[in-house]
Each structure stands twice: as structure tokens, then as C-alpha cells.
Design brief:
Blueprint lengths: L32 E9 L2 E6 L2 E7 L1 H9 L10 E6 L5 E6 L5 E4 L2 E3 L5 E3 L4 E5 L3 E7 L1 E2 L2 E2 L2 H14 L2 E7 L8 H11 L4 E4 L8 H6 L6 E5 L6 H8 L4 H5 E5 L5 E5 L2 E3 L5 E3 L2 H4 L7 H7 L1 H8 L15 H8 L4 H46 L2
Parallel strand pairs: 3-5, 10-13, 10-15, 13-14, 15-19
Antiparallel strand pairs: 1-2, 1-4, 2-3, 4-5, 6-9, 7-8, 11-12, 16-17, 18-19
Bound molecules: guanosine-5'-triphosphate and zinc ion.
Amino acid sequence: MSSDLSSSDLSSFDLSLLGWTGARAAELPSGTVPARVARVDRGSAEVIAADGQHHARYAAHIRRSAAADPVALPCVGDWVALAALPEGRYELDAVLSRTTAFVRGGVSRDSRGGLSGDGQGQVLAANVDVVFVAEPSMHSTDFADLGRIERLVALAWESGGTPVVLITKSDLFEDGLDDLLADVRAAAPGVDVHAVSSLLGDGVELVRGYLDGSRTAVVLGPSGAGKSTLVNALAGGEAMETQQVRAADGRGRHTTVHRELIPLPGGGLVIDTPGIRRVGLYEMHQGVDLVFSDIEELAAQCRFHDCGHESEPGCAVLEALDSGTLPERRLQSWRKLQREAAWMAARTDARLRAEQRDKWKIIHKEMRRAGRNRP
Ligand SMILES: Nc1nc2c(ncn2[C@@H]2O[C@H](COP(=O)(O)OP(=O)(O)OP(=O)(O)O)[C@@H](O)[C@H]2O)c(=O)[nH]1
Ligand SMILES: [Zn+2]
């Protein structure tokens, strides 16, 4: 069995190197084998199974469920059940439970951590263990943007993965890097923060350590943050090549496909999709609460339960602001992301309401028609 996933020999994979754990086996329908989605297209996916990479069409029941709720669609990083069809073809028969998910649109997490959609949500990537938030120490003439870090860390928490902040291009910073790191740590309580220079190789091994145990990561961050350079450094310059793989298509022909789930030669995997790169607004209520856990704790100590932290007496948040323990910038950032999260929630509700209205219109029409046809 090949232990080097970057090799062009795709005849076999050790699934544990792709992150497979036996715990998922119980979910496999009988007669199917597990595979991990490396890329999705319309109605089919490129998947990696123990015997190599395959092109798999979605089973009819998956297409039906997806029509009702796109959350049911397979996405990059999903573990799926593969059923063998005649003539060496494969069908994607089931999507196994997601441990984490990056979702866009009206999808929310229920109390058990499962996803429930309003029929509009889209899952961009699944089963991501580690979410690297890359923020350059210097961006043209600007310093690292703490507000952007807070936003992306909130999205990371919301996905269910573990955020790790990477201050990239640390070589551009001569003095004051320690002060910057201290500010970043205060902006992301409870989150590991590291300085990285892919150029010099500083911190790259540290980053790799988070992928031990064949864990899966994504790298979020603004354009020019050095995400691709970091992935290439992790892959020892092989990432671009490892994305181009030859796979057997439905008719047994070999085609070159662009893989978005990238196994790294040193172990672990990185997911790189256009959707994840354009990461923008998601539902992020719980995520916002987690990034601002220090403010949430203060707010719990305010004299009034419904304190707005504007001018109320006994407000612990304003006290912290006055004493200088809470930076004004961070309070503003909290308010902004809370407004944004509320706006997203309201938008989703409006869409839900519109859908309900449409449903009722149809039901009323049916009822009228039924009434007319009654003998
Ligand atoms: N000085 C310095 N420059 C770096 C470092 N890492 C990347 N760069 C440079 O920063 C520029 C942007 O790097 P990319 O890796 O393309 O950035 P990206 O985040 O992938 O950008 P997008 O693809 O637009 O999302 C390139 O010119 C890199 O050479 C670093 O550690 N130090
Ligand atoms: Zn208050």
C-alpha cells in the first residue's frame, strides 16, 4: 500500500492517511466502501478510495434530496459511501455525517451539532479539523488587521473546526513583532497564534505539526496573505503538481483533474477551493460569541441583564473600557460583527417567510382546484 499520497501511483491509498477513522465505518451502507471527496462537479464527484481515485455519479436519491436542500449535496472533504456498478463505474451512494462544515447561506446548527437547512444553504467544505487564519504582518503599508482576524476566527469556530492564527510574512517585520502577536492573542482569546515566514521557512514546521494524525486544514485569509506560498512550503513545492492527478473516468479513460483536497507529502491534507477562498458572510452567531468570549464574560457581570453597554450604570463592559483592559477597537469590532450576524439571521428569516408564503399559495391553489373538481 502506498504511503506517499503525492506519488503518481494512484493504485492504492491508505485511507487513514486521508483522515479515515474506523468510527465512521458504522455509517456505511452494506455493500459500499468509503471514499473521500476531492472535488465536486455537477451531479458527480472525484473521490479517493482505498483502490485509487474514481469519478462517481450521485445516486438518484442524493440528487432528489439535494433538489430539496443543497446541504445534502456532497462537498470537498466529505466522506462518502461508494457503490460499485457494472463496467467499473461507481455511484456515490451516501454522504456520511460531517464532523465540521463550512456553510454559506441559510444553514444553522441544531443542538446536537447537526446541520439543518432552509433549502438555500450550501456546504463549501466538510470535515476540516484545523482552520488556519492567515493575516500578513504587513499588507502594503498597513499592519495586520485585527478586525479581519476576529471575523475569520468567528467563521472558523462556527465551522466546528479549531482556529489557529498565523501572522504571515513575519520577515517583513523588524521590530515589534512580539507586541503585534500580543495584540492578536488578545483579539483571539484561547486561540493559538504563531508568526510564520514561508520565505525564510520560519514557523512552517510548527504549522505542519497541526496536521499530525492526518488532519485536514483550510487556510483562510485575504488575497496576498501568502496562503498558496504556505501550502507550497508545506508540500515541499509539490502541492501544485499533486493537484493534477490522472483519474479514471466513468468509462475507464484517464483524465487529468484538478483536485481540491490536497494530501501533503509530509502527512495531513489541505482543502483549497475557490469557495473557501472567497469566504465572506456566513451565519456566525456562536462563532462571534466565542471570539469575544472576554466581552461576553464582562457582559454577564453588568448590573442589568439587558444592558446595552452604552451608558447604563453598573456596566462591566464600559468599566473595562475606562480602565483600559478592553480596547475601544475591540468593542467596536464586537458590535459590528454582532450587527452583521443579526442581519444575516434576519435575511434568512425573510427568505424563509417568503418561501412559506409561496408554499401556502400553492396549497391554496390546490385546495381551490380540489374544490372545483369535487362532484
Ligand atoms: N516577504 C514575504 N513574502 C511572502 C511570504 N509568503 C508569500 N509572500 C509573497 O506574497 C505574495 C502573495 O503570496 P500568495 O501565496 O500568492 O498569497 P495568497 O494568499 O495565496 O493570495 P491569493 O491567491 O490572492 O489568495 C507573493 O508575491 C509571495 O511571494 C513571506 O513569508 N514573506
Ligand atoms: Zn453592560
